[in-house]
From TrEMBL:
Identification of the protein by name: 3-hydroxyacyl-CoA dehydrogenase
Superkingdom assignment: Bacteria
Protein family according to the UniProt entry: In the central section; belongs to the 3-hydroxyacyl-CoA dehydrogenase family. Belongs to the 3-hydroxyacyl-CoA dehydrogenase family.
Domain 3-hydroxyacyl-CoA dehydrogenase C-terminal: 202-281
Naturally occurring in which organism (per UniProt): Arthrobacter oryzae
Length: 303
């Protein structure tokens, strides 16, 4: 019999989840919708602020399923089923019959709180609410909830389809049945779930950001981006810090840096040049193969 993960309540407490809501239809949200529909085989509805965003999110899911089909990683039946399970809406009313709603919206505490306020007005009192926040306090998100016992942190890593880890966060109020359901969902998603403390950026992002912080610090001091970024290659990391930053989105990386700096002070530095990289578009760093890596899209040096 599989060992229960440390801190996971008795699985008998877990509730069935027949429908999932995802707030947001951006890259992370769309990856989550695909994973839930594919692995759990339940209807998943994504919402966003306008139809164009919703269509883009659903379009992403369809395109990814087509890629899996072309690689023969999914059967034609499973592909059709997965596509039909994922729908989109501009209204959170679509969550009325959901059992589990996860938000993957902008990394701003007040935005997340507002989202949960709107969702709580629609869903049943038993519906579980989850946040995929990278670095914000889950406890703070519970503060204004009508039912804080239903909140859990459910933090995935990019690319969601392939990264095996899931950080689960309980807040003081989180109900055991809610936590047990979160662990059962993780199992259904074939992720390795670990229960982590509700600390800024939890565990993994803190470690990643120490690396990122030193690379950006070297860059700030004048070491060319390419040199600083490639310095860790001999360590066998699957991606260099800036490539990783570009994949998760540099603004996300910057938010995490700022959250960590606020929580832990000088242990985590915030790079001013990271903002320049964002402004210039990080891809421009690697666009040049003639060694002018430290120049932005406008041709001006970053430093
Ligand atoms: N979406 C879906 N699948 C993807 C993918 C994506 N974006 N990127 C890669 N894959 C799949 C590929 O299709 C391939 O699958 P296949 O074997 O079925 O064909 C498989 O992953 C391996 O891909 P590749 O062979 O092309 O490339 P690599 O061997 O280099 O692996 C990687 C790619 C798994 C992304 C690897 O580079 C890696 O592990 N990178 C580090 C990722 C990481 O550290 N993520 C954490 C970021 S932090 C975070 O997300 C937290 C947030 O809060 C900010």
């Amino acid at each position: 019999r599989a060992k229960r993960p440390a801190g996971a309540p008795d699985r008998k407490l877990a509730r069935p989840v027949g429908k999932i809501g995802v707030v947001g239809a951006g890259l992370m949200a769309s990856q989550l919708a695909l994973l839930f529909a594919r692995q759990l085989k339940v209807p998943v509805v994504m919402t966003d602020i306008d139809q164009a965003r919703v269509d883009k999110g659903v379009g992403y899911v369809h395109a990814e399923v087509d890629k899996l089909l072309a690689k023969k990683r999914i059967s034609p039946d499973a592909a059709n089923r997965t596509k039909s399970l994922v729908t989109g809406s501009v209204s959170k009313e679509a969550f009325a019959d959901a059992d589990f709603v996860i938000e993957a919206v902008f990394e701003e505490l007040n935005v997340k709180k507002q989202v949960f306020k709107e969702v709580e007005a629609i869903v049943s009192p038993e519906c579980i609410l989850a946040t995929n926040t990278s670095s914000l306090s889950v406890t703070a998100m519970a503060e204004d909830l009508e039912h804080p016992e239903r909140l859990v942190g459910f933090h995935f890593f990019n690319p969601v389809a392939v990264m095996p880890l899931l950080e689960i966060v309980r807040v003081p109020a989180t109900d055991d049945a809610v936590l047990a359901t979160a662990f059962e969902l993780a199992k259904g998603l074939k992720k390795s779930a670990v229960l982590v403390k509700d600390a800024a950026a939890f565990v993994v992002n803190r470690i990643l950001l120490r690396l990122m912080g030193e690379v950006t610090a070297a860059f700030d001091e004048g070491t060319p981006a390419e040199v600083a970024d490639n310095a860790l290659r001999p360590m066998g990391l699957p991606m260099t810090p800036f490539t990783l930053g570009a994949m998760v989105g540099l603004p996300v990386a910057q938010h995490v840096q700022e959250s960590l700096h606020t929580a832990f002070g000088e242990r985590f530095t915030v790079s001013q040049n990271l903002q320049k990289l964002i402004d210039n578009g990080v891809k421009s760093i690697w666009a040049s193969s003639n060694g002018a890596a430290e120049k932005g899209a406008d041709g001006k040096p970053f430093i």
